[in-house]
Design a protein that fits this description.
alpha+beta
Length: about 140
């Protein structure tokens, strides 16, 4: 995997409203943004990112960090300098790595601030068993 290291450098989390204030509708948005790509050597590039999870008027969580990427660093950093874009396959890997590190952290922070978790939690429901139906018989074929 070309992503060698992910390092969080800053975390900011805020609740904007009081605990007794409940919004009527709440939309939780996630965003990961690449801020810069810097070539370290021919094989490594440092990619700085920002992850933000917003909870509407309720609060926000922001994390900044750095990824060490192992690959064709000169080509990636040159393309970033010109177009501010990366090849789709590399962008997918980078943003996936950011989400894998930041979303679990955001879940813990949201609990501390009493914000809803930024991911849907599984729902457990117990249903009464349906009437046991007899399996339909069919002729055996040999």
């Amino acid at each position: 995997m070309p992503v060698k290291n992910v390092e969080l450098q800053s975390i900011e989390a805020r609740r904007f409203s009081r605990l007794d204030e409940k919004p009527q509708q709440l939309r939780i948005d996630h965003n990961s943004t690449i801020r810069s790509i810097t070539e370290v050597n021919d094989k490594e590039a440092n990619i700085e990112f920002t992850y933000t999870s917003t909870f509407g008027a309720l609060g926000m969580i922001r994390m900044e960090g750095k990824i060490t990427y192992d690959g064709d660093a000169p080509a990636i950093s040159r393309e970033w300098a010109i177009t501010h874009k990366m090849p789709d396959a590399i962008a997918s890997e980078i943003h996936t790595a950011v989400m894998h590190i930041c979303v679990p952290e955001a879940v813990f922070l949201s609990r501390e601030l009493r914000l809803p978790p930024p991911i849907p939690l599984p729902q457990v429901s117990f249903q009464k068993p349906q009437d046991q139906q007899k399996p339909k018989s069919s002729p055996e074929v040999a």
